[in-house]
Amino acid sequence: MAVAKNDVDEAMLAATKDIEEAKVAAREEVEAVSAANKLDVKAAMAVAKNDVDEAMLAATKDIQEAKVAAREEVETSMASTKREISNAIIAAQTKVEEAKVAARDEIAAAMAANKLDVKAAMVAAKMDVEEAKDAAKMDAEESKVAAGEEIAAAMAAIKSDAKAAMVTAKADVEEAKISAKLDVEEAKDAARQE
Length: 194
What we know:
Helices cover 99% and strands 0% of the residues. It has 194 residues and is an all-alpha fold.
């Protein structure tokens, strides 16, 4: 039994020793893994930092290039806009000048036409005045002739009426004389009979 107890004790010691060794081995392995993990983390962090730095550099470069491209595009657009504005101003000025020339020509043509119209109107008015004078003269002459004819007709009528009146008056006188003679004769006869 003493031998068995010793075996048990030895076995326990051996087991305890194995446990301690296993703990130490596990601790060392954990430390090694932790150290490796730390190294991996540091390496990963370094890689990530490098990636971030490269990404930031690339982004900064892209931003600068974009700024330059935008500035160039803006300058190009402004230059194009300035050219278009200048061309538009020149075209507008040209149109204004053309409109002025056209208006000047129209005014000159209108004034010339007005002058011609005035001259034509004056000529027509003068002709109308002359025609009116001629017509008035003709009307006066015709009136004179008509008045002369009417006066002559009236005088002839008056003469004819006077002659007729004289004839009538003479006939009346003769009739009165005859009537008076008859009355006298009748009176004589009557007196004689009485």
